[in-house]
Putative aminotransferase
Amino acid sequence: MSHVFPRHCHASLPTAVAGDGCYLIDSNGKRYFDASGGAAVSCLGHSNAPVREAIKAQIDALAFAHTGFFTSDPAEQLADLLVANAPNGIDRVYFVSGGSEAVEAAIKLARQYYLEIGQPERRNLIARRQSYHGNTLGALAAGGNAWRRQQFDPLLIGVSHIAPCYEYAERGAEESLADYGQRVANELEEEIQHLGPETVMAFVAEPVVGATLGAVPAVEGYYARIREVCDQYGVLLILDEVMCGMGRTGHLFACDGERVRPDIITIAKGLGAGYQPVGAMLCSSAIYDAIAKGSGFFQHGHTYIGHPTATAAGLAVVKQLLDPAMLPRVRELGSLVETALHSTLGQYAHVGDIRGRGLFWGVELVEDRETKAPFDPGRGLAGKIKKTAVAEGLICYPMPGTRDGRVGDHVLLAPPFIMSDEDPQLIADRLATAI
Ligand code: PMP
């Protein structure tokens, strides 16, 4: 009997023993093409030499030093590199160990910022339905999936949820894209008015929605309006790039591609590329200074923040992402994925939509592609596709629609940036067999 406490108690899983570029290998020698990197983690594949060497060198020199006593070279250098390439105005980096911790830190930072500047009544957070921001209690409260939240309610903070920008499912037949974008962005203003502008601290959203909707970018104009509303009411804009960040969309920071300027950004997954658990919350000096000049102490922290080995891995990853050839290559491979998915799956009866950015793609699955009627959730589509894809030697990320009767069954693809020109077709072929 295994003594590991698995998340899916009844799953019987193969044992992964090795990684080789785009492939994972199990204890029977079976090779799986990793087209989702778990969920958008393994951006550099599985045997990246510079990251492995950086980790070894750091462990040999110093594995751990507590940030209550020391800073470290890799943490300093990684923060410098991130800030040098971050959107304008973002110039402080708070390291954590993963995505939920980064979101948790962002929520607490927003709350503490308003306390420090004397607006203690600003405690409400606005997020979007059909969203996921992590599984710790604060991040879970932010997420817009009632099914995930319900058994833990009431959670610590007040969160209300507005519509996501999900044109495929929610745009009216007669409505232009631009009108749709403005209509859903205006929900933010309506919610702020409803709650009382003096009570709202922040709005959180993914620039390109990952796990819950399947690589869905907002329509043109949506984020410009969101930024405008945030500025008008003094609401902080937190962009969660845990999944879509770190080059995944063809830009180091996804918000740069979507042309929206955040006050706070969260990153993780691709930052450590799977080699180390590392994430970060980035913010502006304006926010940092309010705390530095106020209480001088951020009320949030974990033992492993700024971990030297983890930040050394992150540094080796980000250096490679900033190689001048890397992000153009992500965009080039992205068009090959787009072509392969459309030509192979575009006419499938149950494929409702294919969309994405860079190497972040979603294939929407529907009962009827004309009416867009969703599958009955009872059919357990995601689990079945996952099982058949794994049998085909393909790791992809099928997700059910949120369990509140809405559409959203999809397969998410987030393949490594190091794949060959032939690999997009291999992914499309294996996925086609699984579907
Ligand atoms: N935010 C987003 C957008 C995510 O996709 C995830 C993980 N899927 C998280 C936060 C939480 O990250 P982690 O699982 O590393 O805690």
Summary: The chain has two domains: 16-48+325-434, 53-321.
